[in-house]
Amino acid sequence: MFTRLQKFLALNSEEKHLFLQGYRLLGVIRFAILTTSFKRLVAGLTVDRKAMVQAPLDLNSLATAHAIGWSVRTAARFTPWKSTCLVQVLAAQRMLQQRDIAGAFYLGAVTGSDRDEQPTLSAHAWLKCNNDFITGEPGHDRFTIVTSFSWP
User: Fold this and answer.
1) Rounded to two decimals, what is the model's pTM?
2) CA distance 23 to 4
3) How many Å apart are CA 125 and CA 93, to the nearest integer?
4) Element (H or E) spanning 48, and its range?
5) What is the Cα–Cα distance from 90 to 134, expressed in whole angstroms?
6) Taking burial as the number of CB atoms within 10 A of a residue's CB, which of 7, 39, 136, 147 is the most buried?
């Protein structure tokens, strides 16, 4: 516990701000997922059924996007609630949109079977700015893109 506090205190002020904003948004989004329809959560975003082609970001925007991804992924490890890939994607998307940084997030699915040979369906969400992963990269390649959402 003390080591975690030391690590937090060693962050610069911008990193602390992003971490705390990410932590707060993870809670807000988790609550929203439990109480609101998905349609309302993605209202105002552009929907596409395939991978989006995005305009390139300048280096400062891309660095900010990576910092946001770090803050959300890191904060998710410390939440007492489930901060799944979808929660992380939606939190990062809100943070990016607040800073006018364009991106896209993807929802993918894969079918399989369990130990009893019963069919299963697994889903995953990931977020990218340009071709850079911001959240959800590990394992994304196993999933077929079902839909994607972007914002200007």
Assistant:
1) 0.89
2) 15
3) 12
4) strand 46-48
5) 11
6) 136
Average pLDDT score over residue span 77-106: 96
Q: Which of 109, 60, 56, 65 is nearest to 85 (CA)?
A: 109
Q: Who contacts 146 (Cβ-Cβ below 8 Å, separation ≥6)?
A: 49, 107, 108, 109, 123
Helix, strand, coil shares, percent, the chain, to 5: 45, 25, 30
Q: Is 11 exposed, middle or buried (0-12, 13-18, 19+ CB in 10 A)?
A: middle
Instruction: Give the contacts of 69 (CB within 8 A, at least 6 positions apart).
Output: 92, 127, 133, 134, 135
H helical segments located in the chain: 2-10, 13-35, 38-41, 59-76, 85-98
